[in-house]
């Protein structure tokens, strides 16, 4: 009888014990290099999700193109093969042509305008996904400038020079319009391209320029700041639909754009410090005069109409949203 009671007690405890659900594990692919300011800021959001969910949502981040190039991993996220993706707006041009407008050269007058305008665009951009994925958040990525093997100052100076450009229509058209031989490449292919002599210049950010070691191959950094770039985080439909409503809200809250301007200021500080390191190490930094910048701005904006005509999607709607946000910020 005693043995029967003991066994009954053990069975009761086993069946009465609460069943704890396994934590949701999401795989996030990104091309941003580990150790950069972008990676640190992304990991801060990932850590916030883990803490806020009490460990119920765990995001495993694979930086540095470990799961493939930026465009390929985005496509695999849209197909549901990868849960989450973090990458630049240029890559979005392959799935949402409207987003490419954010890569129009000299779209933003200043970093202050960019920091005010970009967060306001998230709702419109979310509507434009057409249900292909969930656009979770936007964060700043810094500015695009030119890294060269020899010094240049004006658009005419790049005539006939092979330059790696972001694989997005506005940037391709811009460099073609000023006479460069544009070579569209994923960031992961950039270092090999410049080290092999395939290109003599690179459309890049100062952070990636230093982090990837491009400064050792192309020692001239021309601070054109022709694009203020954005980093986006998306979730595949397959992964999103598997989440509870509470988990979806938690992800939205912890990945929101509330820190956009703070993150932008941090990136600006990092850019300034890195370029000073470049100069201290014997590199060349070409800072533009007001007149030189005016020439670059004029050349960049001259390519806008041709670019807009060649993009697919609801271009007018998104351009109107950009212009309205710019007007509010100014």
Quick structural gist:
By secondary structure, the chain is of the alpha/beta class. It is built from 15 helices and nine strands. The protein is globular.
Walk me through the structure.
The protein is α/β, with parallel strands linked by helices and 330 residues long. It has one domain: D-Maltodextrin-Binding Protein, domain 2 (3-Layer(aba) Sandwich). It has 15 helices and nine strands. Strands 1, 2, 3, 4, 5, 6, 7, 8 and 9 form a nine-stranded mixed sheet that branches. Helix 7 links the parallel strand 5 and strand 6. Helix 5 crosses helix 15. The longest helix has 21 residues. It is globular and about 60 Å long. 44% of the residues are buried. The N terminus is likely disordered.
Features:
D-Maltodextrin-Binding Protein, domain 2; globular; alpha/beta; nine-stranded mixed sheet; disordered N terminus; 45% helix; 330 residues
Secondary-structure element order, N to C: HEHEHEHHHEEHEHEHEHHHEHHH
Which architecture per CATH?
3-Layer(aba) Sandwich
Shape: globular
The number of helices is: 15
Number of domains: 1
Structural class: alpha/beta
Radius of gyration: 23 Å
CATH superfamily (homologous) name = Bacterial extracellular solute-binding protein, family 7
SSE blueprint and pairings:
Blueprint: H1 2-16, E1 24-30, H2 37-52, E2 57-62, H3 70-78, E3 84-88, H4 89-92, H5 111-120, H6 122-127, E4 134-148, E5 162-165, H7 169-177, E6 181-184, H8 190-195, E7 201-204, H9 206-211, E8 220-235, H10 237-241, H11 245-254, H12 260-280, E9 284-286, H13 290-301, H14 304-309, H15 315-329
Parallel strand pairs: 1-2, 1-3, 5-6, 5-7, 8-9
Antiparallel strand pairs: 3-8, 4-7, 4-8
Helix pairs in contact: 5-15
